[in-house]
Amino acid sequence: MTINKTWLAGFVGIAALGLAAPALGQDKPDNLTIISHRVHQTVSTGEQGGDITKDWQDANGVGVEWVTLDTGALHERLFRELQLPETNIDIAFLLNTRAVDSVTKLLEPFDEHMAANPVENIDDIFPGLRAAMTFDGTLYGIPFRHASSCFHYNQRILDERGVAPPKTIEEMIEAARQLTFTRDDGTKVYGFLINGEGYANTVDLARAWDGDFITLDYHVATTDEGMMKAVTLLHDFYEEGILPSNWAAIKDEEVNNWMQTGRAAMSLNSCGRNRIFNDPEKSQEAGNIKTVAIPVSEAFKDKFDVAPAKVEFWTMVIPANAKHKDLAWDLVKTMVSPENTLKAALNGNGPVRASTYDSAEMKNQLPYADEEKAVLLVGRVPLPPFDNAAKASDIFVEELQAAVLGMKSPEDAMASVQKRVTPLLPQ
Amino acid sequence: MRDSLPTRILRPICFVLIAVWSGFPIFFLVMSSFKPPRDILAFPPRFFFTPTLDNYTALVTRWPEFFEALQSSLIVTIGATVLTVVATTLAGYVYSRVRSRLLAASAFLMIVIRMVPPIVITLPLFPVINYLRLSDTHIVLIVLYTTFFVSLNTWIMKAFIDQIPREIEEAAVIDGAGLMQILRYIILPLSAQGMIAASTFVFIFSWNEFLFAFIFTTTDAKTAPLVISEMVGAVDGVEWGVLFAAATVQLIPILVFVIAVQKYVIAGLTAGSLKG
Q1: CA A280 from chain center: how many Å?
Q2: Is domain A148-309+386-424 classified as CATH 3.40.50.970?
Q3: Do A30-147+312-378 and A148-309+386-424 come out as alike in CATH topology?
Q4: Taking CB atoms and an 8 Å cutoff, what residues of chain B touch A37?
Q5: What confidence category does residue B143 fall into, taking pLDDT thresholds of 50, 70 and 90?
Q6: A30-147+312-378 architecture in CATH?
Q7: Fold of domain B63-270
Q8: Distance, in angstroms, between A91 CA and closest chain B CA?
Q9: Would you give the distance in Å from CA B27 to the centre of its chain?
Q10: Would the ipTM clear 0.85, i.e. be above it?
């Protein structure tokens, strides 16, 4: 056999490919690593809608590795990774309240990626969510999942007491009084229950009068009419026994449990809780809990159809020190496409696109889809992001509990919040 | 001397109260893991129920990573326990048999290090471990857990070895035994009880430890407490049945181990309390 030029060229070509392979491999990793809460993995890979990353993985020959942590742990880990010279994390999920200046400057700005490889119909993603991740005109995160607050009530208890579903906050207050009673077996039913250890549901209540804790322009609004009405109402409820005596120690898990066991008749909580309130495997009241938008006060009916309740959301961000930013962006873009947003919603995600709520599948799956969309159209974050947000929240909860339990007057407590929190805000 | 009547009446009552106080949470945990999810926190509480393995099935199908994490926990726990016992037995022997100012100073230093809150050390260590590419490995947890238990266990082993008469070693030396033979045939067998006692502390600590594992692991070396913390932190409602099933599974090895070695623990803790 003689070696002619064609053979020689072939050998040289194969040798060159062999030498170049490691270098090519560096550009395309085996896996992209996503650090998230477990819920993000569940809704991205669930059975009903399917794995929203699968087509992308097949097309690119790159796998996706999920690293899941609890909310606090996730952020703590992410913030540490962001400060390293280089991180193995390619995409991270960030809660909107954690997107403060000191963090965003360690994230990859998305404007250039958007120009080169844009997200499909980004205007369909609720503008308020995008705005909350835009700093100095630059986009740093793509919203993926939201948790908006709704009003949940137990239709069976309402029927039992002859109470119609409230349409305004004033009707809800009156209903709470009528729905507080003691059953023949000695079990007390509380007309209204919210988390006593957090600030968010109190902000929800204040939003019925368009109230706030801290406004988006960083003004402490605790002494304004909306928040004062909410705190005074909670104090009155506590005095009247509409809230339980251990209210200050009630957490979200207890609220869930009391709604599931019929010990609480009405609550403000994330709309998605409807699912667990009505899960026959977990709830004694399955099928009885209805979920609607939080009713607005009579006085604000001209301004809002529903109360502009709390909307919190998770965004996908890319660390500035990540190794494969273009590839990571391409996956982010894929995960929030209209098609994948619907798939994730069918897996239980709170969708961030308005169009998703209009789909037939969504309406079939979520009986409260229209109500949730109504909240998203007017809702806003419970607290704008700033470095001292956690400290400010602690102060609010401390003073709120003092006011509700009668250790301070609502006026004094909320004035104290204003005095203590104002110096913590960005100047 | 016979106990007084009130003492004889109060003693069993106190015993029962303490036993219920300590045992009820474990009983509740294990029982709940066999309850149907809607009965776990039902109101009024349901004490009679048909046991089910649904929670364990859900744990296997929905949280497969829990069992991988259990394997990691086991590797790290056994590794840390073995390394600690070996290191502290040898150190305890030296502290027991050798007198020098340098050793006294090092003993003091060990106590001081033990008093430093772990978080003070762990956070600055993160970039170093990352640079060394040891992040998310079992070895980093084994070394850290060992480091934090070397001081306490060295003192336990020293107290134990102090009780072994030097005359036995002197007789062995006369018979021609070297240091290694003395260690192998005299010190190790006679201090086995102390080694078991010392191992108990590091075993329990390593099995349940959260902070170091949280900071230094991601996926490959993730331990069971981290997965359980994820179950507790579910944003769409805690699955109590699955959580209790996982906690029960995680409890079993430690319970078996502690029951098996409990008498040595008492012996280890009281070593050196009586002289003469």
Answers
A1: 25
A2: no
A3: yes
A4: 233, 235
A5: very high
A6: 3-Layer(aba) Sandwich (3.40)
A7: MetI-like fold (1.10.3720)
A8: 14
A9: 21
A10: no
